[in-house]
# Entry
Amino acid sequence: MGRKKQELWVRLMVLLTNGGRCVYCDYAESQVIDHVIPLKANGEDSWENLVPACEACNLGKSDKGLFAWVAELTYRDSASASGARPHGTNGLDWMREQLECAFDDVQARLVGVKAELDDEGRRNWFFDRHWHLSKNAEIWLWRGWADTDAAEARMNGYPKLPPPPPPPRMRITRAHLGQVLEPIPSDEAS
Ligand SMILES: [Zn+2]
# Structure
């Protein structure tokens, strides 16, 4: 069972759950969709099994499975906060507690994401507005539109709305340091 590229509207719909943040670290902006149950572990390649993730967590989790990845995140966090960690056996108990808390937190967020995705009104909203976008359209451009619209629509129960205006055309320019993107003025021919 191979991985198929999800439609853009599906990716937007998933990326904007959990307040648009990565479901694992709950800190970074979501950048990619992740399979909660890895495909290699026979996870489904459909939205029921998709969550928003940042690139770092997506790469870090890879095919490890959820528990292993949350454990790794937690150990990393606790290593940087080593002042708070008791020594010896107490330290082990403390670590176990940290791990349980972290895992519960991630589970709660996963349940939240699932509830958002299960919301048929919400799904229809994303479909109605973005079904026509090609899979390869620039997701970061559309995300900007969808973010603003979704926040507004969420407050109104994801009503059916007319399609959004097209996103601005962007081009890459060389700035002082490296490459930057700038909008192309609408009166300029392509
Ligand atoms: Zn993350």
User: Anything to note?
Assistant: The first helix runs from residue 8 to 15. Strands lie at 32-35, 50-53, 170-174, 179-183. The chain has one domain: 8-171. Residues 22, 24-25, 28, 53-54, 56-57 surround zinc ion (CB under 6 Å).
